[in-house]
Fold:
Amino acid sequence: MAAAVDSQFDVDVVQPPLLRVGKRMYRQAGSAALSFQDDGGEDYDHVAVDEAGDEEYEGLDIVVLDDGQYQATVTIAPTFYPLIIGRKGQAKARLESDTRTSILVPRRGSKSESVTVRGKTRAAVASCCTRLELLVSSASETSRPTHFVSIPLVSPRTERAIAAFRDAVLADERCAQEGITPELFCNPRQLHLTVAVLRLNTTAQVKTACRILEGCVCMCPPTRTLRMQGLEYMNDDPSEVDVLYSKVRLEDPTGLQRLADSIVDLFAEANLLERETDHVKLHVTLLNSKWLKASGSTQRRHKFDARRLLAKHSDFDFGECQMDTIHLSKMQSTGGTYYVPETIVHLA
Structure:
């Protein structure tokens, strides 16, 4: 009789998945899994990894204390502290027991990003730091984005064009029946072209991202005027749409595409994002179902039927826009108008 195989062992042993932590790559093994819980009771699975070479942990400053113990500090965002501690401290206690170390996590509410590890041997401290970084790196891959890079397209002309489009769509009495409501439409004062979405959980990551973007000023395309014309949707079925956007037209589209692709390449090289496609999809979001939830609705995010809208307005012309700046902004943070920036790069 064939034995049943647990799904946690269903891993390709010849080409196991890889997990990047800084400049190091680790092979994920399916032989064991450590389950962690945060204070809210949510489960987190951290797959055990190949940790050979912990004794020669590169990039970790391990110091010897007066009492002979070894100590190192790992930079971790406070948002991940519940994951490290676990319910009633169980995850932290288990990791301390496994590595024979003690882990000092800042108190709840602290803005400190320093987690301290102490142990009787250098290898024990290195092993614990590696486990912490792997745990956080794995969790950050599925965490919510914190920042995004955008090119604002806000002007009196675009505000009037968005208002005209919105009025024309909502004037059709069938819109409400198809799930298209005023809350789905973008705020004209936040109109932008999205370049990249990022997960920047530590102050160091934010500073690195700012420095990278500020170095892109020399990549400004020769033509900074674009036209928003024509509508498209993100998924394959126009009757069930989450995002409807305007297409971008330029006299020389290669300049803007090259700029967007170069920005994403630089962030990828700095391990601040994983490139998912060969080229950035240049688009300006007009309707988004997530904005309905943000407006206060208690309903789940729902899709809308865009077939009638597309039939009537598929070639809508929003006019020309000027690209003057590139912003790195916090996700969903507004100062009354545009998104609050971490840094602004002025295109020369």
Summary: The longest strand covers residues 24-37. Confidence is low (pLDDT under 50) at residues 1-11, 25-56.
